[in-house]
Amino acid sequence: MSIKSSFRPVWLLVVVIILLLVVLGVYLLSVDTAPSTDDAVISADSTLVAPRISGTVQDVLVQDNQQVKAGQLLAKIDDRDYLNAVQTASAAVETAQAQMQSLVAQVAKQQPTIEQARAVVAADAAGLVYARQSAERYKRLAVDGSTSLDQRDDSDANYRQKLAAQQSDMAAVRAAEKQLDVLKAEQAQSKAAIDSATTALQQAKLNLSYTDIKAPIDGIVGVRSLRVGAYVSAGTRVLALVPVEKAYVLANYLETQLAHVQPNQSVTIKVDALPDVTFKGKVDSIAPATGVTFSPITPDNATGNYTKVTQRLAVKILLDAGQKDLSRLRVGMSVVPTIMTQ
Hints:
By secondary structure, the chain is α+β, with helices and mostly antiparallel strands. The protein has helices at residues 2-30, 80-143, 149-209; strands at 40-43, 47-49, 55-60, 67-68, 73-77, 212-214, 219-222, 231-232, 239-242, 248-254, 266-271, 274-286, 312-319, 335-339.
C-alpha cells in the first residue's frame, strides 16, 4: 500500500508535464513565428529617361541591358538647330548691349548740351537787363525830345527781341532736360532688353545641352526605344534605368500574418530563379493601406450581402548589402520571403 502511494505523485507530475507540452505545442502551432508568402517579387525604383527637347537621334551610345553610371552619355540628338538658336540669341545680346552703349554715350553728351543751353540763358539774362535799361532810357529821352522816336522804337524792339530770345533759350533748356529723361528711360528699356536677350541665350544654351541625353542614375538599360535617325519628342520615354544593385522585395502578406511583424526583423528570401541561393534581408516597412484601397473602384461593403475576405498588405524588405549573388537578381523575379518574428 505504501509503494502505490509513493508512485502516485510521480504519475501526477508526468501528467502535468504532458499537459504543459500539449498546451505549448498548441500555442506554437497557433502562432506563426515565421510568416511566409509566395506573393512577392523583386522590385526597384526604376527611372524613365525622356529627352527634354525634340529632335532627330544622331547617335546611340548604349545597348540593351547595359550597365551605365550616372552622368554617362546615353544618346545624342542632332544639335544643329540648337546651335543656330544659340548664335541667334548671342547676336541679340550683342545688339542690345550695343544699344545700351549708344544710349550711355548720348546721356554723357546730353549733359554738356544742357549746360551749354543754361549758359545761353544766363547770357540772355545779362543782355536783357541792358536792353531793358536802354529802352527805358530812350523812352524818357523821347518824352522831352532829346532823341528821335525811331531810336526809341528801335530800343524797345531790341528789348522785346532779347526777351523773346531768352524765352526761346529757356525752352531749349527744358527740352534738353526732357531729352535727358527720355534717354534714361530708353536706358532702362535697353537694360530690360539685355536681360531678356541674356535669358533667351541661357535658355538656348540649356536646350543645346539637352541634346546630350545622360543617365540620371546608376542602373541597367531596359526597354530601349532609341534608334539612330528616329525622331523623339520632348517628354517621351526612350528607355528605363533599373538600379538592380538597390533592389528590394515587395511581399504581399495576409493581414492575419502581420500581428508580430516589426521593422528590422530578419528575413530569409528564396528566389524561384535561383533555387540554390538564399538571400538575407530585413523588414523595412509595412504599407499604410491594402492594395484594394488605392484601386480606381473600391469595393462597397455596405450592401446586403457581405463576404469577409482576408486582405493583403505590402511589406517592403531590404536586402542585406555585400551578398555575392545580388547581381543575379532582376526586377520582377518571384521570391518567397520568410520573416523571423521570434
